[in-house]
Design brief:
This protein is mostly beta strands and 713 residues long. The termini are far apart. Residues 74-177 form the TonB-dependent receptor plug domain.
Length: 713
């Protein structure tokens, strides 16, 4: 006999009854002349735009600051680095961070099906939603239900550094760092405006302008903005957004530069972006119907987020420079959600979550280039500080008629009110030495972090205070050999450390998560061709990792030990004939070590096999000049919907097709110079099946078609 329980949906696409505590851890170098591709224009430049942070040629990344905080070429770095370049973003037109990462090997997207509320994803089996996302080299903070959303129109590129990186960045995921690179001011004038329409009554307008503000070129600016009014495939769940990101660069001298980056985003969607789940007699989920949870009268999820910070660089000499990156960020959200007990019952419940946080992060380091005989050293010595303060409150109400929902009252003891707040601080000191001798490259990192946290909660009138005070040493070492014919074998080892707030199921304080990984690989850059192939094998071990699972109809925080090992390969190319290719394959084998009740099981929602392929063509001349098109295939192998590996909610293998076609209208008439029409489709074949993760089930996102008309000057 099957019975159904009320399960309501909230943060990170997971189902909850009462909220669990969150899993929360708590300067430019002049490059040689390169091609910088921006939304507004493509032109040759030195350190304009994001060139000082990431440089690329089409689909192929050349350098990225993410791996070492220096401009070390990607092919020389002893670590796996995947980069979503500006050309890839422009071609695929992703609408969120998950879609932007769809073609990255080892990254699992879509584990929570259709969900416009949060960006949630896994790397090599580890959920990095809370602990792995950085913005311009600084940690992007979050709280239990407060997660910063990404507007892809505001980023220049996305760099994914695989492997433990705590020795360079502090507390972070054991599987790596996803660094979102913001659009920056340019030293040339450009502009674009764009309008979009498409599926589900989509209406969107945006613009991106920038350039010098004075004749001397010592003050540069950029202003990027977007507004959207749209529905989604789920009734009563909108996808509305307003986004604006001003940026300005000051260059008072050749030795000094400061760039101010800021953003404000207001978003509105639905708090009940999920479907009714059914349960067996033991309380285990058995699947989801296509019956929406939402009642439109109480389902608004609004969020305001903002950030302002700066990147400062001063060169004391050709070999010594000081860098400081700092950012203040804040978020406020109000989430209404509701749901029925089952697909036919009129009775159900509603929840209300209000949450806000303020955070500050600063990273200051000295970069020194020295030589000891034939050996060259690039030294970084730094200190960074991270501060987070958040508060959260939650309440429930129950109803017999969905048209008569009572707004939950935080002061009503029958509403199971829950309040929490937390103060976190993390201070770290670190050093890095990049050693170059002949064809050898050796990178060494060492760091020590001090973490302090005070967590207070009130539930059912019971007050609880928990404090954590931890310190941890982390390290990283990597060795590569750069051959003259483009082949670079490498090996690396690193450790990670993440302090965790809150409690687990039995009420005890969570332990810090620690991890270690060894990796070996090879990179090949084709001579005289803009193409690369990177392959690696890895073995990762993580202890006391915090995961979420639906237990007794509530989303609860648990901890487990596991190991992950596998193989990844990625190829990227942009040829002179207009053809671009991106292909990858990932094999990921995970096994849980503790607790003993699930020892030997595979991690939830982690497929052993996954591959993707995207190909594009931009006609450079001839009768088809101005025409471009592309298509992609994403395959996800069979995986399990919970850590018990129950067959009833196992996810079968599936594949999705995406496509794009565009045309530069200038080729019809010179009067339309700069005008481009583009159409993108995700899940073109509209393949929609049930997908389960962490003991709760969802449905894949269906087909979405977006048409855009853009004018550039």
């Amino acid at each position: 006999m099957t019975r159904s329980l009320l399960v309501l949906s909230t943060a990170a696409g997971l189902a909850v009854g009462l909220p669990a505590a969150a899993q929360q851890a708590g300067g430019a170098v002049q490059l040689e002349e390169i091609q910088v591709e921006g939304q507004g224009a493509t032109r040759s430049s030195g350190a304009s735009g994001a060139a000082g942070v990431v440089s690329n040629d089409g689909y192929v990344a050349k350098t990225t600051r993410t791996a070492t905080k220096t401009d070390t070429p990607v092919n020389e770095t002893p670590a796996t680095i995947n980069t979503v370049t500006q050309k890839q973003i422009a071609d695929r037109n992703p609408q969120n961070l998950q879609e932007a990462l769809n073609y990255t090997p080892g990254v699992r997207t879509g584990a929570f099906g259709f969900d416009p509320r949060f960006d949630s994803f896994f790397i090599r089996g580890v959920d990095v939603t809370y602990t792995g996302v950085f913005r311009d080299g600084l940690r992007q903070f979050s709280s239990p239900s407060g997660l910063f959303r990404l507007e892809p129109y505001g980023v220049e590129a996305i760099s994914i550094l695989k492997g433990p990186s705590s020795a360079l960045y502090g507390a972070g995921a054991s599987v790596g760092v996803i660094d979102l690179i913001s659009k920056r001011p340019t030293d040339y004038k450009f502009g674009e405006v764009e309008v979009q329409t498409g599926s589900f009554d989509r209406k969107q307008a945006s613009f991106d302008i920038g350039g010098p503000l004075n004749e001397q070129g010592t003050v540069l600016y950029r202003l990027t903005a977007l507004g959207r009014d749209a529905n989604t495939e789920m009734a009563r769940v909108p996808d509305d957004r307003f986004f604006i990101a001003p940026a300005v660069t000051f260059r008072p001298s050749d030795a000094t530069e400061i760039t101010v980056l800021s953003e404000f985003l207001h978003g509105k969607t639905g708090g009940s972006a999920a479907f009714v789940n059914s349960y067996d007699a033991l309380g285990n989920v058995t699947g989801a119907t296509r019956t929406p949870l939402a009642n439109g009268d109480f389902n608004d999820f609004t969020q305001d987020q903002g950030r302002i910070g700066y990147e400062f660089k001063h060169a004391f000499s050709d070999s010594v420079s000081l860098h400081q990156n700092a950012r203040f960020s804040a978020l406020s959200q109000r989430e209404e959600y509701n749901g029925r007990y089952d697909a036919v019952s009129e009775a159900g419940g509603a929840g209300l979550v209000k949450e806000q946080f303020a955070a500050f992060a600063a990273d200051t380091y000295l970069k020194t280039d020295v030589a000891t005989g034939p050996v060259a050293h690039t030294l970084l010595t730094g200190v960074d500080v991270s501060l987070l303060k958040y508060s959260s409150k939650y309440a429930l109400s129950f109803y017999s008629d969905p048209d008569g929902i009572t707004v939950p009252d935080f002061g009503d003891p029958n509403a199971y009110p829950f309040r929490s707040k937390q103060d976190q601080s993390l201070i770290g000191v670190y050093a890095q030495d990049e050693i170059k001798w002949d064809a050898w490259r050796l990178t060494l990192n060492a760091r020590y972090d001090w973490f302090d946290s005070t967590y207070k909660s009130i539930s059912g009138g019971v007050h609880d205070t928990q404090k954590q005070n931890d310190g941890q040493f982390t390290g990283r070492a990597g060795l590569s050999y750069v051959t003259a014919f483009g082949l670079t074998p490498y090996v690396g080892y690193g450790t990670s450390f993440v302090p965790n707030p809150g409690t687990v199921i039995d009420g005890t304080v969570t332990k810090p998560t620690v991890g270690e990984q060894i990796e070996a690989g090879v990179k090949y850059t084709f001579p005289d061709v803009n193409a690369t192939i990177n392959a690696s094998v890895f073995h990762l071990k993580q202890d006391d990792g915090v995961v979420y699972a639906v237990v007794d109809a509530q989303n609860k925080q648990t901890q487990l030990d596991f190991r992950s090992r596998g193989f990844e390969i990625e190829g990227a190319a942009t040829f002179e004939n207009g053809v671009s290719l991106l292909a990858s394959y990932a094999y990921t084998d995970t096994r849980i070590a503790k607790p003993d009740s699930i020892k030997g099981k595979e991690l939830t929602s982690t497929p052993k096999h996954a591959f993707s392929l995207w190909g594009g063509y931009d006609a450079p001349d001839g009768v088809a000049k101005g025409l471009s098109f592309g298509a992609g295939l994403r395959y996800t192998g069979r995986n399990f919907g919970d850590n018990d590996n129950r067959a009833v909610i196992a996810n079968k293998a599936r594949a999705f097709v995406d496509a794009k076609i565009a045309y530069e209208l200038e080729n019809l008439t010179p009067r339309l110079k700069g005008v481009k029409l583009q159409v993108n489709a995700t899940n073109l074949l509209d393949k929609v099946e049930q997908v389960c993760s962490a003991n709760y089930c969802y449905w894949d996102q269906g087909r979405q078609v977006i048409a855009s008309l853009k004018y550039r000057w």
